[in-house]
Amino acid sequence: MAAFSEPIVYVIDDDAQSGRAVAELVRTFGHQVRTFQNPREFVEQLDGIDQQQVGCVITDLRMSGVDGMEVLQRILDREVALPVIIVTAYAETAVTVRALRRGAVAVLDKPFRDDELWSFVQEALGRSEQEVARNQRQRELLERFTRLSPQDRQVLQLILEGCKNRTMAKRLDVSLRTIENRRRRVFDMMQADSVAELTRMVVEFEHRLPPTAPTGEAWLTLPFERVA
Question: In whole numbers, what is the pLDDT of the chain averaged over residues?
Fold first, then answer.
């Protein structure tokens, strides 16, 4: 399991009093909070946020200079794992739909209930954890794949096709010993113990899937049901 950083909730509101109220409420949830009265200041600091930082953003919709929708878009453009919750006193259906389609966790009408915000903050942090884990896994797999030579990758492709060693040797016009060596190198470089694990790595990398538990663990925790 990845060791996640302590979550940080970023609160953005050009109304200082409103921003402080939201920040204090979030602190009662037990989370670290960083507040920004100037949304442009937050946007300028986005590049400096660690890629492994778990967190979320609570931003007002209507602000001078940079509004909540632009904050959302800037986060999407930089691919930072910070899901966004938008709060507004001027809710409009069209804006809500657009925000949700762009990936916002929620658009909350002011005034909102404490439990509403708590629920969406928990959802947002859960999404952030998953995205941080996915990004970390992608970097790990990328490093492993880049260590494979073009010849190794040919063998990996044939392994995934289910080819036997002798078939690979004929198709690549090399000796059986060469195939065995390349096959061994593929498993070593990818840190895999089985063809199933290799396949899972390729699928995870190509489709940016969340990391999965190692093969053979999930079934161990299934409940026992006696068959009559």
Answer: 90
Q: What is the pLDDT of residues 151-160, one digit of tens each?
A: 999 999 999 9
Domain check: are 151 and 123 in the same one?
no
Handedness of CA 110, 115, 117, 123 (dihedral sign): negative
The CATH code of the domain that includes 201 is: 1.10.10.10
Domain boundary among 118, 137, 156: 137
Asked if the bond preceding 111 is cis, omega within 30° of 0, the reply is yes
Helix (H, G, I), strand (E, B) or coil at 3: coil
- This prediction has a pTM of 0.78
Per-residue pLDDT tens for 108-117? 998 899 999 9
**Torsion 100-104-107-108 (CA) sign:** positive
- Answer yes or no: is 165 within a domain: yes
Tally of structural domains, the chain? 2
R_g of the chain, CA atoms, integer Å = 24
pLDDT in tens, 33-88: 999 999 999 999 998 998 889 999 999 999 988 999 999 999 999 888 999 999 99
Q: Does residue 87 share a domain with residue 153?
A: no
CA 89 to each of CA 11, 112, 119: distance values in angstroms, whole numbers, following the listed order: 16, 10, 19
Q: Which domain holds residue 199?
A: 147-215
Burial category of 213 from C-beta neighbours within 10 Å (exposed 0-12, middle 13-18, buried 19 and up): exposed
Same domain (yes/no): 48, 133: yes
